[in-house]
Structures are given as structure tokens and as C-alpha cells.
């Protein structure tokens, strides 16, 4: 999965998002994935179990009724019984035989007749309860209330055209739930060991585990079903305006108390004080908003425009012009542009206008961002790829999920470190792309010098005042972005200066390298973790061993004693004086 990791797409200024929603609806995906279902001559596997799984995949793909006729220590064989019991039908020719090769200890197909003389009839003798359980265990872990026996039976019939009984599906679901319960018992028992390993390998990290502990260990019932847990993530931005993983945690539910807990830790670790001078962009989750007000009252808390648009679309789905009108409003750099775009929305639809005003546009329009923050973002769209990369991690067991996220963050930071330290420009690639977009207007703008080192720049019927010494332009874009706007860029070209000299320090290569001077250190595997966990479950108490009252043996009681063993058993039966333990 780490090899498949790719960088998130670059920030695109003034480009409408491709998606209209807040993300893909994972619950709509009910397709169950297996192997490719193909067998071929000389195919090899590491074990007979893997071979059997491949044959089951083949049976699911083709719909033929296969049966295992041989399974020795070094041999395995399957035949097709699709014609058995049919009037006038002989045996199907399909046959599959594999054995271990002594040379490399690998299982390899030795005989494969890939010809069927039968027609699939919806039966599959090999498709039993354990296989159904393995097929649906990940889906049941995600949505146990959705994958009930009737639903499992329906999916199997629809996807593979195989008939199974309701009892089979019920037993398979029960078995899958037992596996999941054992997984979480094992995972939760090592939570504090995992936390200790993080602090051992990354000493400057902050790890906190809060849980309910009983005599039997940690109470992890809230994550028995993964859908009931919430993963909280905090992401920052580097000098190249790309996301930087800062912190993540798992809570039972997304509410005010849990967000306050998360915010307090961020506040302490990064010395945020009351939030003055910092920016946060999020959705309008009530618990999060309340937590920010309590812990970081002076932080600039912006609302994500994409979430606002998603809510408007639910109400006004048929009005296609809402998207460009809303985004153009969000991209307004000054109050004049803001009022113009707001008036366009009012003229388009008064109800839409009223709904927009209820969202408090001052919390998501650029014109009202604090000057000097040098972050013009109005949405969280750039983190969608990061969230998408977590989808596979969420499917894993609890500690394995946290390990996958940590490892992905480590690899991301390592790759960015190489990229930043090999970059030779004065400013980051983000700045160069930004300026390239401004060059067309800047190169055609009319520049007129004024007094006190100021300039008047005209383009498209409008004019603005630029002060290079103060790093300001009356369009406000430069003050918000930290990168010269098209008007300032026009003056820079006019004076034959270097635009990089007028970019704020936050987007310089020196700052980019500083962002990635330190990173995450690799960690050891679970068997090397410190064994200091108070959450480890104690071993079960040893049960009283049952002995037979007739012969004294420990493998049965007197009810199941076999008379034909009495003669041989009586020789070893202890005398009453030995105090043997008996149970009727």
C-alpha cells in the first residue's frame, strides 16, 4: 500500500472542485473482492491452503461445482461434480491436481484439464461456512448491521450466482463476528505497549491513551464495530503549500468532549496558547466548533466552502448555477468583489441568498481573512487524497490501522525531505506555479509611477495602487497570499526586479527545508514492543481438570468411560489413599 502512495494534487487557485459532495459514499460499495479466479498450468503457491483458496476463487468466477477428492501432506486434487446425479450425464472432464516439488518446496499444478462438460447450476460443494465468513469478514467489520444473513445470501446469489442456505449465512456471520471480536481483544490488549514503542523510537512525540480498564483489561467494545469509531486528524501545510500530517487519534464518537480532548493536546504540544496568529479550516461540526471556542478562542477558524456547497446542493439540487456563484463569492479578495458576487446570488435566487447569508460568509470568504496570515485557502479539498489514502488503513485491525497511518506519514515526510533538500530555487515550486499564472496579466498591465515609491497599475478597466516597499496592493491579494499579485508582479517586471525577492519567508526553499529537517523514526515490530501494558488481559484461570471416576484418566469422565478399557485402566487406577480428584 505504501508503494502505491502518491502525492496529493497541487492546490489549484480559482478552479472549481471536480466533486460536488464531501467525499465518496463508502457504504454504497457492496462489491466483495477476491482473487482473479484464474488457474493455469504450472501455477505455483507457497501452501496447499493457498491453492485451495485459488480453486474456490475459480469456482466463484465460473459457477462450477467443484469438489476436493485428495488432500495429502504433499498432494491436493479437485474434480468437477456438476454432472453427478444428472440423467444421461457422465462425469465432467475437469480435473486439477497439484503437488509439492522437492526442489523448491513449492506447490505446483501437475495436472490441469480445463474443460467442462457440465453447465453451472448454482451449486458449489466447496463453498462452506468458513469460506463465506472469510469472504464477508471485512464487510461485516465495517457494517455489521447491514450485512445480515439475508443480505449475505442475496449478495452471493447476485454476484456469483451460487445458492446458499440462510442457516449457512447465519453461521458464517456468527463466525466472522467471533473472528472480529478476537482481533479487537488482541489489539486492545497491546495499546499501551504500542504507545510505549512510539515514545521509545520517537522520543519527542506525544502519545495518550484514555480507556476504561477493568480486571480483565481495556474495554474496547466501542470499536468492535469499526463504524462506531471516529478517526480525528490534524493536518498542517508546509512551505510548498502541501499537507503535513501533525496528529491523529481515535475516539468513540465525534462530540464536544472528544474534540476538546483533541484540541487540548494540540494546544499543549504546539504551544498555541489562545490560538492568536493561527488558522484552522474545518467543516461545521458542532462539537468541533464548540471545542475551538473553548480552547482556542482567538484562532482564525474558517469554514470549508466545499461542505457549505454540499449542504446547499442538498436543498437546491436543481439549481446548477449555485456552484460557480458560491465559489466566486468565496474567492473574493476584497469587500468590493464580495458585494458584487453576493448581489449576483441575490438576483439569481433570493432563497439561495438567504441560505448563504445564514452560513456567515465572513468565516469562509477571502476578503475577511486576517492580513498577514499568508494562507488564502477556503476549503479542505487538498486533504481529500490524504483521507482517500486512509481508506485501506481503516479496514485494518485497530493497532494495525494506527501503524499504517504512522508508516504512511513517515514515508510521506521522508519523500518530501528529499524533494525539499534537492530543490535549488529561491522559492518553492508552489510559488513558481503561482507566479506563472499571474504572468499573463502582469506582462500586459499598464504601470504608471507615482510619488513615494508607489505605482498605479491598470488592467481590464480597473486600476490599483502598489507599494513594493510595504508589500501591499489595494486589491488585497498580495497581503492575503504572501506572493505578489498580478498588479505587483507588473511593477516588478516594469522595474526589472526579481519576483522571488518579494515573496514572504513562509514560501521560501529555506523554510521548506526546515519543515523537513526532522521526521518520524522507524519502529520495531510488535514482538519487540515494551511489555509494560496494564491493559494486557490476564491469562484465563486454569480450569479444574476432570478425571474419570472409574479409571482415573483425565481425558474423560465416568459417563464416557469405555468398558473395554477397564481392564487396562484398572492397573493404573490410584488407590483411595492417594487422594485422587474425581468428578461424577
Report on the architecture of this protein.
This protein is of the alpha+beta class and 584 residues long. Among the domains are: 44-179, no CATH class; 429-507, no CATH class. Helix content is 38%, strand content 13%. It has 19 helices and 15 strands. The protein has helices at residues 48-62, 129-142, 149-160, 166-188, 191-201, 256-269, 286-295, 305-315, 322-330, 335-348, 350-358, 384-389, 391-394, 398-422, 429-444, 477-481, 486-494, 509-515, 566-570; strands at 44-45, 66-71, 75-80, 95-101, 106-113, 213-214, 217-218, 230-237, 243-251, 279-282, 300-303, 446-449, 454-459, 462-467, 472-473. Strands 1-5-4-3-2 form a five-stranded antiparallel sheet, covered by helices on one side. A hairpin with a 4-residue loop joins strand 4 (95-101) and strand 5. The radius of gyration is 33 Å and the shape is elongated. Residues 23-34, 213-227 and 564-584 have low confidence and may be disordered.
Please sum up the structure shown.
By secondary structure, the chain is an alpha+beta fold. The chain has helices at 48-62, 129-142, 149-160, 166-188, 191-201, 256-269, 286-295, 305-315, 322-330, 335-348, 350-358, 384-389, 391-394, 398-422, 429-444, 477-481, 486-494, 509-515, 566-570; strands at 44-45, 66-71, 75-80, 95-101, 106-113, 213-214, 217-218, 230-237, 243-251, 279-282, 300-303, 446-449, 454-459, 462-467, 472-473. Helix 6 (256-269) crosses helix 7 (286-295), helix 9 (322-330) packs antiparallel against helix 10 (335-348) and helix 15 (429-444) crosses helix 17.
Amino acid at each position: 500500500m505504501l508503494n502505491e502512495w502518491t502525492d496529493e494534487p497541487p492546490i489549484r487557485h480559482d478552479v472549481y472542485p471536480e466533486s460536488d459532495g464531501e467525499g465518496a459514499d463508502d457504504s454504497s460499495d457492496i462489491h466483495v473482492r477476491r482473487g482473479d479466479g484464474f488457474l493455469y498450468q504450472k501455477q505455483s503457491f507457497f501452501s496447499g491452503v493457498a491453492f485451495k483458496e485459488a480453486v474456490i476463487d475459480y469456482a466463484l468466477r465460473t459457477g462450477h461445482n467443484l469438489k476436493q477428492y485428495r488432500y495429502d501432506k504433499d498432494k491436493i486434487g479437485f474434480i468437477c461434480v456438476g454432472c453427478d446425479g444428472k440423467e444421461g450425464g457422465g462425469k465432467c472432464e475437469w480435473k486439477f491436481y497439484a503437488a509439492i516439488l522437492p526442489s523448491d518446496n513449492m506447490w505446483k499444478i501437475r495436472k490441469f484439464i480445463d474443460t467442462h462438460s457440465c453447465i453451472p447450476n448454482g451449486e458449489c460443494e466447496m463453498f462452506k461456512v468458513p469460506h463465506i465468513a472469510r469472504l464477508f469478514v471485512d464487510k461485516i467489520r465495517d457494517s455489521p448491521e447491514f450485512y445480515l444473513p439475508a443480505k449475505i445470501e442475496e449478495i452471493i446469489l447476485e454476484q456469483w450466482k451460487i445458492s446458499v442456505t440462510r442457516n449457512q449465512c447465519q453461521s458464517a456471520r456468527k463466525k466472522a463476528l467471533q473472528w472480529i471480536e478476537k482481533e479487537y481483544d488482541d489489539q486492545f490488549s497491546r495499546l499501551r505497549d504500542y504507545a510505549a514503542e512510539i515514545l521509545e523510537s520517537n522520543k519527542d512525540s506525544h502519545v495518550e491513551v484514555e480507556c476504561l480498564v477493568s480486571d480483565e483489561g481495556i474495554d474496547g467494545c466501542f470499536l468492535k464495530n469499526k463504524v462506531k469509531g471516529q478517526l480525528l486528524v490534524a493536518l498542517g501545510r508546509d512551505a510548498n503549500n502541501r499537507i503535513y500530517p501533525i496528529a491523529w487519534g481515535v475516539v468513540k464518537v465525534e462530540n464536544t468532549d472528544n474534540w476538546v480532548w483533541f484540541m487540548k493536546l494540540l494546544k499543549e504540544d504546539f504551544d498555541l496558547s489562545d490560538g492568536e496568529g493561527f488558522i484552522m479550516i474545518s467543516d461545521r461540526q458542532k462539537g468541533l466548533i464548540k471545542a475551538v471556542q473553548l480552547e482556542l478562542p482567538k484562532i482564525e477558524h474558517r469554514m470549508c466552502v466545499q461542505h457549505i456547497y454540499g449542504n446547499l446542493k442538498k436543498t437546491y439540487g436543481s439549481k446548477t448555477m449555485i456552484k460557480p456563484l458560491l465559489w466566486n463569492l468565496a474567492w473574493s479578495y476584497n469587500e468590493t468583489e464580495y458585494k458584487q458576487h453576493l448581489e449576483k446570488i441575490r438576483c439569481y435566487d433570493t432563497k439561495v441568498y438567504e441560505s448563504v447569508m445564514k452560513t456567515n460568509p465572513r468565516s469562509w470568504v477571502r476578503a475577511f481573512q486576517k492580513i498577514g496570515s499568508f494562507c488564502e485557502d477556503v476549503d479542505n479539498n487538498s486533504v481529500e487524497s490524504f483521507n482517500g489514502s486512509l481508506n485501506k488503513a481503516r479496514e485494518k485491525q485497530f493497532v494495525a490501522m494506527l501503524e499504517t497511518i504512522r508508516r504512511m506519514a513517515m514515508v510521506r515526510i521522508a519523500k518530501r525531505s528529499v524533494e525539499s533538500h534537492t530543490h535549488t530555487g529561491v522559492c518553492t515550486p508552489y510559488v513558481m506555479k503561482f507566479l506563472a499564472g499571474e504572468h499573463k496579466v502582469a506582462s500586459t498591465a499598464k504601470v504608471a509611477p507615482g510619488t513615494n515609491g508607489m505605482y498605479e497599475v491598470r488592467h481590464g478597466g480597473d486600476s490599483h495602487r502598489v507599494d513594493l516597499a510595504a508589500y501591499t496592493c489595494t486589491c488585497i491579494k498580495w497581503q492575503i497570499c504572501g506572493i505578489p499579485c498580478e498588479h505587483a508582479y507588473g511593477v516588478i517586471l516594469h522595474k526589472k526586479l526579481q519576483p522571488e525577492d518579494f515573496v514572504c519567508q513562509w514560501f521560501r526553499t529555506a523554510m521548506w527545508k526546515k519543515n523537513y529537517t526532522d521526521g518520524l523514526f522507524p519502529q520495531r515490530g510488535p514482538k519487540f514492543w515494551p511489555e509494560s501494558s496494564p491493559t494486557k488481559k490476564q491469562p484465563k484461570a486454569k480450569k479444574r481438570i476432570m478425571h474419570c471416576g472409574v479409571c482415573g484418566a483425565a481425558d474423560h469422565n465416568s459417563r464416557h468411560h469405555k468398558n473395554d478399557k477397564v481392564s487396562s485402566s484398572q492397573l493404573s487406577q490410584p488407590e483411595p489413599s492417594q487422594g485422587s480428584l474425581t468428578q461424577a
